[in-house]
Design goal:
alpha+beta, Uridine Diphospho-n-acetylenolpyruvylglucosamine Reductase, domain 3, 15 helices, 19 strands, about 25% strand, binds flavin-adenine dinucleotide, FAD-bd_PCMH-like_sf, oxidoreductase, FAD-bd_PCMH_sub1
C-alpha cells in the first residue's frame, strides 16, 4: 500500500507523495523503524529540515523525520557537545551560547538539522577552517540491519571517516558529538570591491583574515565583500537594532525580493535592477556573537548550484563565468557567492584533500536555471569541480568517481553496510551508483 504523505523541500523544486512518514523518538525507535521497513522491502530516507536543493533527501517509501529526536545529550567541560541528530543548528547554537561555547565555523543559515547539514558536507568560509564535518568527533549510526554502531577516530574508524559526509547513504545518524570552542565574537567588515580586483588578488584577499567571502553581482563588475575576524566576546558592539533590521530585512531580503518579483513580470528589468541592488549594500562594521554574524535570514527563495574547485582555480572559474554571463542573454538577479575552506580528509567532503574555493550560483526558486547552471557546471567541471551534495548538479557516479580519489572506498563501504540499498533513493542511485544487489552484480 503506498503511503499518504506529501513532502516538498525549502526551494519547492523537489516534491514527493505517496510515502509513509515516521517520527521515532530515541535510537531504539529509529532502529525499530528501520527494521520494520526492511522487513517490508521498503526504502528508508531520513530527512532534516528539507533545505537541500537536490533530490538527495527525497523519500520513496518511508521517511524518517527526527523532529522528536532532537535534544541536547551532553556538553563536557572541554566542549564536546553531543546531540540527538535531528537538532536544528539554531538550537544547538543557542544551547552552546548559554554555556559559553560555540561552533567554530558555520554556513550562511542555521535552519538545517545537525544530521542533514553533516550529511551533505555543509560548510562556511575560512581558509584555515573546514566544514561542519571537521568539527565532528563521534557519531552513532543505525545500520540497515537495525544494529547501532558507535564510531569515532578510535572506534570503527573507517565508518567514522566516511560517515562524516555520508549523504545519508550509510545509515541513520542518531547522535553526533562535535567539538565546540569557547564562545567568541566576530568583527565583520563589509564593503564594496570589483571582481577584477578580487580575481587579481584572490589568494591574498581570501586569506586576509579568518572568514572571508564575497558576492559578485552578474551583469556588473561589482562585489560585496565580508571579512570576519575572530575577537574576544568582550568586544561585542552590534549595530543599532534599526540598522540591523534595515540591512538584513530591507536591503538583503526585501530588495532581492523586489528584483526577483520584477523579473517575473518584466524580465528586461532584471539587469538594471541587479545593478541597483549591487550598489545598495553599503559598507559597515559590527562586532557580535559569532553565530549571529555567520548566519543570515534567507527569506527570498532560490535554487542553487555550488561547485568546490581547487582554490587556485577560482579566479579563472570566475573570469570564465563573467565572460559567459556577458556573452549571454540570461538575466541573473542573484549574486554569485564565493567562499573558501581548508583541505580535510573525509572521503566525500567537497574539500577532501585540497584547499578549496566554493562558487555558488542562484536563480529564483520558481525559475528554470537552464543554460546558466549548465554553463557554470561545465566551467567548474573543467577545473575539477565537485558539486555540493545538497545542491543542484547533473553529475552521475561515473563522473563523480573521477572527481573524488576515494570515491570507490566510500561506495565499497556503502555496499558492505547497506547491501540491499535500503538507504538509497533514485538520486543516490544516480550519484553513487546502485548497490550491486539492485543491478544484479555480485
Ligand atoms: C537558504 C539556504 C542556505 C544554505 N546555506 C548553506 C551554506 O552556507 N553552506 C552549505 O554548505 N550549505 C548550505 N545550504 C545547503 C544545506 O546546508 C544542505 O542542503 C543541508 O543538507 C540541509 O540540511 P537539512 O537539515 O535541511 O537536510 P535535508 O535537506 O533534510 O537532508 C539532507 C540529507 O541528509 C540526510 N539526512 C538527514 N537526516 C539524517 C540522519 N539523521 N541520518 C542520515 N542522513 C540524514 C537526508 O537523507 C539527505 O540526504 C543552504 C541551503 C539553503 C536552502
Amino acid at each position: 500500500m503506498p503511503g499518504t504523505q506529501r513532502w516538498r523541500n525549502w526551494a519547492g523544486n523537489q516534491t514527493a507523495t505517496g510515502f509513509d512518514a515516521v517520527h521515532p523518538e530515541g535510537t531504539d525507535a529509529i532502529a525499530a523503524a528501520v527494521r520494520a521497513a526492511v522487513a517490508a522491502g521498503r526504502r528508508v530516507r531520513p530527512i532534516g529540515s528539507g533545505h537541500s536543493f537536490s533530490a538527495i533527501g527525497r523519500p520513496e517509501h518511508v521517511q524518517l523525520v527526527l523532529d522528536r529526536h532532537a535534544g541536547l545529550v551532553d556538553v563536557t567541560a572541554d566542549g564536546l557537545v553531543t546531540v540527538q541528530a535531528g537538532m536544528p543548528l539554531h538550537r544547538l547554537n543557542a544551547e552552546l551560547a548559554a554555556r559559553g561555547w560555540a561552533l567554530t565555523n558555520l554556513g550562511d543559515i542555521d535552519r538545517q538539522t545537525v544530521a542533514g547539514a553533516l550529511s551533505t558536507g555543509t560548510h562556511g568560509t575560512g581558509a584555515e577552517f573546514g566544514g561542519l564535518a571537521t568539527q565532528l568527533r563521534a557519531l552513532e549510526l543505525v545500520l540497515a540491519d537495525g544494529s547501532v554502531l558507535r564510531c569515532s577516530a578510535t572506534e570503527a574508524a573507517d565508518v567514522f571517516s566516511a560517515a562524516r559526509v555520508g549523504l545519508g547513504a550509510l545509515g541513520v545518524l542518531s547522535a553526533v558529538t562535535l567539538q565546540a570552542v569557547p564562545a567568541f565574537a566576530l568583527r565583520a567588515e563589509e564593503g564594496p570591491a570589483s571582481l577584477t580586483e578580487l580575481r587579481a588578488d584572490f589568494d591574498a584577499f581570501m586569506t586576509s583574515t579568518d572568514h572571508v567571502e564575497f558576492y559578485w553581482f552578474p551583469h556588473t563588475d561589482r562585489c560585496a565583500t565580508k571579512r570576519n575576524t575572530r575577537v574576544p566576546m568582550g568586544e561585542v558592539a552590534p549595530l543599532p537594532r534599526w540598522r540591523a533590521m534595515w540591512d538584513d530585512e530591507v536591503v538583503a531580503n526585501a530588495a532581492f525580493g523586489a528584483v526577483v518579483a520584477a523579473g517575473r513580470v518584466a524580465p528586461p528589468l532584471v539587469r538594471p535592477l541587479a545593478r541597483v541592488s549591487a550598489r545598495a549594500l553599503s559598507a559597515r562594521t559590527l562586532t557580535d556573537d559569532a553565530h549571529r554574524v555567520f548566519v543570515s535570514r534567507r527569506r527570498v527563495r532560490f535554487r542553487e548550484m555550488e561547485y568546490a574547485v581547487p582554490r587556485e582555480a577560482a579566479p579563472q572559474v570566475l573570469g570564465e563565468l563573467q565572460r559567459a554571463v556577458d556573452a549571454s542573454d540570461w538575466r541573473v538577479p542573484f549574486p554569485v557567492e564565493v567562499r573558501v575552506a581548508a583541505a580535510d580528509d573525509a572521503p566525500l567532503s567537497t574539500a577532501s584533500g585540497r584547499d578549496t574555493a566554493y562558487v555558488a550560483v542562484h536563480v529564483p526558486a520558481r525559475s528554470d536555471p537552464g543554460e546558466y547552471f549548465a554553463a557554470f557546471e561545465a566551467i567548474a567541471g573543467a577545473a575539477g569541480g565537485r558539486p555540493h551534495w545538497g545542491k543542484l548538479h547533473g553529475l552521475d557516479a561515473a563522473a563523480l568517481a573521477g572527481r573524488y580519489p576515494r570515491f570507490a572506498e566510500f561506495t565499497a563501504l556503502r555496499d558492505r553496510l547497506d547491501p540491499a540499498g535500503v538507504f538509497g533513493n533514485a538520486h543516490l542511485d544516480r550519484v553513487l551508483g546502485p548497490v550491486p544487489a539492485r543491478t544484479g552484480r555480485s
